[in-house]
């Protein structure tokens, strides 16, 4: 058997999966008992599984399939590039057309003097590059001790040693000896869960000023950079209060700290602009990109680097001793370039801003009428709802965090909707091309799932506040 067809019975596929395929972020023994859902096809915003169910993908895969599934144009460009030049490296004073053309396109789309691209195979790898790049930058500047990077608790920056260390996920730090040295974490701007009696604006300022306090504590001569997602994605689609990012920018400017925006989710249209930094009004020195760069059709990531950082490292008189075999892979680059062209040709950002966002916003906000839903947030097409036993106090559930969220996600799964939970927050990030009629289906399935979850939560006595 050389290829696995879609015609094998689901049970057999699940048995092979359990026997040989170890899944990311999964308790594999538990999954093996239950059997994975096998996805066989995708078209537009819908997936089909091996049992023939049509599932609305409210997450665009893992926040990446922004143009939707099954786009022939991207398949064709990949096939053509494989025939013409399947692979070549960009290490030893060589380059190739797809890597060049894509870098030029990214530089054209990126704001300000973010004019230089270093390629990686993923967002995690790109953030590993960023750690080495900002440390190298200060080294060349004669400040090798300026090497601490400040990040936030509950941030997600990937799963490599570097990426997971930058991230602030306690469950990840608990495994494998993380974080690596010289990474510091401050609190996140998560008003709904942690804002107490402060207004969102007061709380945003207070959380931003933790950066200033941390810089003062460590010494500005020790701090290389601050990294943050313009809007936290995997942490629960947490939209910071409006006061937060301007204050972070002011503090980075004041102390001469590089600002890294992790745009892996927020880049390429997700927030209605090309980059989340534009939506949040910040000017980073470096952006991390991946996911929507290729709409997930090929694995590719990278760092977009400003003139100052690039010129310093490029002009150091020495090599930057870093790179990946697949940096700027020609097939992935060709696919990504075509993806960006299609986002432009099809006016996808206009569609997000003027059609999909306003329509989904109205219907998403409507979910706050549901007895379980305390708030509904949506920027562009990334959204979240908070589940709570008490809307007035924004209370957490007495049950372990994520119990109610997981029960709700299970109902979504059963109702053929992919909507994830992060703790007791439900999150969506649908393909950017989603139509109003498909948004209606999303809301209808989400509402039914919330109703069913609510009945179950009540029946099991889980509606108690902590
Ligand atoms: C997904 C993600 C990453 C990691 O990207 P991978 O391609 O999975 O390595 C990094 N940062 C953010 C903000 C992400 O959402």
Automatic annotation (TrEMBL):
MF (Gene Ontology): transaminase activity
Keyword Electron transport set for record: no
What the entry lists under Pfam families is as follows: Aminotran_3
Q: Which PROSITE patterns match?
A: AA_TRANSFER_CLASS_3 (PS00600)
Q: Which UniProt keywords apply?
A: Aminotransferase, Pyridoxal phosphate, Transferase
Q: Which SUPFAM superfamilies match?
A: PLP-dependent transferases
Record carries keyword Transferase: yes
Q: What CDD domains does the annotation carry?
A: OAT_like
Q: Which cofactor does it need?
A: pyridoxal 5'-phosphate
Family that this chain belongs to? Belongs to the class-III pyridoxal-phosphate-dependent aminotransferase family.
Q: What is this protein called?
A: Aspartate aminotransferase family protein
User: Which species is this UniProt entry from?
Assistant: Albidovulum marisflavi
């Amino acid at each position: 058997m050389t290829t696995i067809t879609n015609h094998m019975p689901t049970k057999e596929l699940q048995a092979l999966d359990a026997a040989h395929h170890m899944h990311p972020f999964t308790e594999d023994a538990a999954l093996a008992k239950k059997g994975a859902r096998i996805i066989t096809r995708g078209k537009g915003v819908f997936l089909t599984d091996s049992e023939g169910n049509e599932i609305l993908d409210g997450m665009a895969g893992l926040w990446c399939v922004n143009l939707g599934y099954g786009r022939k144009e991207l398949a064709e460009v990949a096939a053509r590039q494989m025939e013409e030049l399947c692979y070549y490296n960009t290490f030893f004073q060589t380059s190739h057309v797809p890597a060049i053309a894509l870098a030029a396109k990214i530089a054209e789309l990126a704001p300000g003097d973010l004019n230089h691209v270093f390629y990686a195979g993923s967002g995690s790898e790109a953030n590993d590059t960023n750690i080495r790049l900002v440390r190298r930058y200060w080294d060349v500047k004669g400040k090798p001790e300026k090497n601490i990077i400040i990040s936030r608790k509950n941030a997600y920056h990937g799963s490599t040693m570097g990426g997971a260390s930058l991230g602030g996920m306690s469950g990840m730090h608990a495994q494998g000896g993380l974080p690596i040295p010289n990474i510091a974490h401050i609190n996140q701007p998560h008003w709904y869960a942690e804002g107490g009696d402060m207004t969102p604006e007061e709380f945003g300022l207070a959380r931003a000023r933790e950066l200033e306090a941390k810089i003062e504590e460590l010494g500005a001569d020790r701090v290389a950079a601050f990294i943050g997602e313009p809007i936290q994605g995997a942490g629960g689609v947490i939209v910071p209060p409006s006061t937060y990012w301007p204050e972070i920018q002011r503090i980075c400017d004041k102390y001469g700290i590089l600002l890294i925006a992790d745009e892996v989710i927020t880049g390429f249209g997700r927030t209605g602009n090309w980059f989340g930094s534009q939506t949040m009004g910040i000017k980073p020195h470096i952006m991390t990109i991946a996911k929507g760069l290729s709409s997930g059709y090929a694995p590719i990531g990278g760092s977009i680097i400003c003139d100052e950082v690039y010129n310093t490292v490029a002009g150091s008189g020495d090599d930057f001793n870093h790179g990946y075999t697949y940096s700027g892979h020609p097939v992935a680059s060709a696919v990504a370039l075509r993806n960006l062209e299609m986002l432009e040709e099809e006016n996808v950002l206009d569609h997000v801003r003027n059609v999909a966002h306003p329509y989904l916003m109205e219907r998403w906000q409507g979910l706050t009428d549901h007895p379980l839903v305390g708030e509904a947030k949506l920027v562009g097409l990334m959204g979240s709802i908070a589940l709570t036993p008490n809307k007035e106090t924004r209370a957490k559930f007495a049950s372990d965090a994520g119990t109610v969220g997981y029960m709700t996600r299970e109902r979504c799964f059963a109702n053929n909707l992919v909507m994830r939970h992060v703790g007791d927050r439900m999150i969506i990030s649908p393909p950017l091309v989603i139509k109003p009629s498909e948004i209606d289906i999303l809301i209808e399935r989400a509402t039914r799932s919330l109703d069913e979850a609510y009945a179950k939560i009540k029946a099991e006595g889980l509606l108690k506040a902590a």
